[in-house]
Design goal:
mainly beta, globular, eight-stranded mixed barrel, L,D-transpeptidase catalytic domain-like, three-stranded antiparallel sheet, 168 residues, cell wall biogenesis/degradation, single chain, cell shape, peptidoglycan synthesis, 6% helix, transferase activity
Length: 168
C-alpha cells in the first residue's frame, strides 16, 4: 500500500476502496495556518511514523511501522512552550498533554504522522493522528479517524513509504 488520500469525509485507498472518515471539528486548513487547539485538520502530505495500540483491547496488528503497546504512562505533549511539544511523553507529565490510554476507545489504535515534527514549531499543531472513529462519526480535534476494523486493516497494509494525504 502506498498513499491514503482523504478530503476529511472519506478516505480513498489505492485499490479504489472508499471509507467514511471524520476530520477536525473546524474542517480543513492550510498546514501553514494550523494552530494548536483550533480543531482544524491540516492539508498536506504526511508520513505515517509509528503505531500505538491498546493491547488490552485489541490484538497488536502485524505492521511494517514501529509498534508500541499503550500503557497508562503514555501521553502526547500539546504545550507549545514545552521542549517536548508534539512528542510522546511519559506520564505523569507537568505540561499540558493528551493521555493515550483513553476510555472512549478512540486511541485504541492510532498512527502518528510527521505533521509539525521536524522540527516541531511551537503552536503550529500537535498530535495529528490517524485513529479510531467515534461510533457516531463525530468530528475529531484535528486528526483523521476511520472505523476501528478499517484502521486495523490499514495498519496491517501500510508500509514505511505510505503517506496520509489530506486535500481540500
Amino acid at each position: 500500500m502506498t498513499d491514503l488520500i482523504t478530503n476529511g469525509r472519506e478516505l480513498r485507498l489505492p485499490d479504489g476502496t472508499v471509507l467514511p472518515c471524520s476530520m477536525g471539528r473546524s474542517g480543513l486548513i492550510a498546514a501553514a495556518d494550523k494552530r494548536e487547539g483550533d480543531g482544524a485538520t491540516p492539508i498536506g502530505r504526511w508520513r505515517l511514523l509509528h503505531v500505538y495500540c491498546r493491547a488490552d483491547r485489541i490484538a497488536p496488528p502485524d505492521t511494517a511501522l514501529p509498534l508500541t503497546a499503550i500503557t497508562d504512562r503514555d501521553g502526547w505533549c500539546d504545550a507549545p512552550d514545552d521542549p517536548n511539544y508534539n512528542r510522546a511523553v511519559t506520564l505523569p507529565y507537568p505540561a499540558s498533554h493528551e493521555t493515550l490510554m483513553r476510555e472512549d476507545g478512540l486511541y485504541d489504535l492510532l498512527v502518528t504522522t510527521d505533521h509539525n515534527t521536524d522540527p516541531a514549531v511551537p503552536g503550529l499543531g500537535s498530535a495529528i493522528f490517524l485513529h479510531c472513529r467515534h461510533p457516531q462519526g463525530k468530528p475529531t480535534a484535528g486528526c483523521i479517524a476511520v472505523d476501528r476494523a478499517a484502521l486495523i486493516a490499514l495498519v496491517e497494509a501500510i508500509d514505511v513509504d505510505s503517506r496520509l494525504i489530506i486535500e481540500a
